[in-house]
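Q: Entry one of two.
A:
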Amino acid sequence: MPYASPLIKETAGCENTGLLKLIAIVTMILDHVGVVFFSYGHPLYVPLRTIGRVAMPLFCWCMAVGACKTHNAYRYALRVLLVGIISQPFYMLALSHSWTELNVYATLFCGLCAVIGIREKKYFSHIWAPAAALMISYFVKMDYGMEGVLLIIGLYLGRKHKWSIALVLGAMCLWWWQGTAFGYWLRIQTGELNMSLRAPLYYLNPIQARAIFALPLILLPMKKQFRLPKWFGYAAYPGHLLLIYLADRFLV
């Protein structure tokens, strides 16, 4: 059942999702350019990957806001799912993934379904929907996986206060920092990885934790709306992956 009407104002963060999506798209493209065209150690690799960390929190925030604003939550979820299906071949070609590794739209779809369940509260959906989304994203390999779904849920639940938005993103970035460092340390101790010389880089310079730089944008007070064409927002993901693949295949 679609929502009766969109909510005019229900968050303490920036609701200019057109602008945030545009920034997320640009930073995502720069991130993927860094992955495909520059190897680790190249002077441009770390700056491009650092800029790219801003994209996922912005997409997650826009998903949380979109769930509040949409006239029809189920059509919204269906569009996200269709873009993910269309994008999968391009994701595999451009970034060298397999069919068992799903693109970020799978993560966004799971997060959106969790939020819809929380909002609807039908047949205890506020309990089983987020639990199911987290379980699926844990067992099925997808970009950002369970952490991305958890971030969407957390941003939605904390959307009404600036401090709670900051707390959710800060906690996730802390996990990306110390959790990743602990994971590498544990794998080194068990002998799974032999990275003793490079290990301190992961403790002191975890690139994913720089997603915290998205926080000022999420909290940015903006009244004017920047209207991003809906078709562009959905076409940007598969489109840029196709262009990156073609450039890597035929131009480089």
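Q: Entry two of two.
A:
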Amino acid sequence: MSAGHDHGHNHGHDHTPAEFNSAFAIGIALNMAFVAIEAGYGWKINSLALLADAGHNLSDVAGLVLAWGGALAGRLQPDARHTYGWKRASILAAFFNALLLLLAMGSLAWEALGRLGSPEATQGWTIIAVAGVGIVVNTATALLFMRGRKGDLNIRGAFLHMAGDALVSLGVVVGGALYLWQGWAWIDPVMSLAIAVIIVAGTWSLFSQSLHLLFDGVPGQVDLAQVRRLLLGLPGVTEVHDLHVWAMGTSQIALTAHLVLAGAGAGTDAVLQEAEHELHEHFDIRHVTLQVESAAYASRCALRTGTACS
């Protein structure tokens, strides 16, 4: 006997893409306008720090577009060819966004190291003014996503990324101030290197987590040993095998398992109901599929050794 349930339709945060359509649109428009301003002034005054931050903000626009697209794709209904729908689009988008950002920062760091050998003068006040606008834009964009940051990984990623960008822009302001104060021409490439290091440090986690999830790794917030103990603690459950936990997308976790019951058939529905409730409450696992077996059937179930049940 088996049962599967998806509780996702009963919780408000699954409507996040619809609720945050305007936030994504405003955030993308604000950041595109700022990228144009920052890149223009960076080119005009030959500031690598401004150009670096403009490149990063452009990648953030791409990140917002990918997050928006992934969120909307996750709402597409499953069909006969895609029985889970397109939920994994958000994971794939996060992976490619992180990969492109890491490559861009590597290129930036190489250019900054080259400039350290022959630093060039720049315009401190222009840097301060433009980066100051960046603080405002990035903070405003982060605030657009603050409300949904606890309910959806995509939204939380957008919030944290934009909040981090506000801090990076603050670093550029500090660099401009130091140039005005001390006249250090080398401060611009040094700040560029610092920005690259900060972004790589922040992006590496996104890269490794998205790669992990792409290969059906157990999501970081789920302790598989605790899940197994929870299932083994259910009334009548004597064994758990063929346990799998993976991410269907950035906001939904799935689980499948075989439960061996003493005297299977008696109280099966109660066991399934309690299992679904506990997995939801403790691990936020909403898509649960459980197969209930008797001890006799389980003894013939070769899934425990990696093949199929006979």
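A: Comment on entry two: The beta strands are 2-6, 237-247, 253-261, 285-294. Residues 6-17, 306-310 have pLDDT under 50 and may be disordered.
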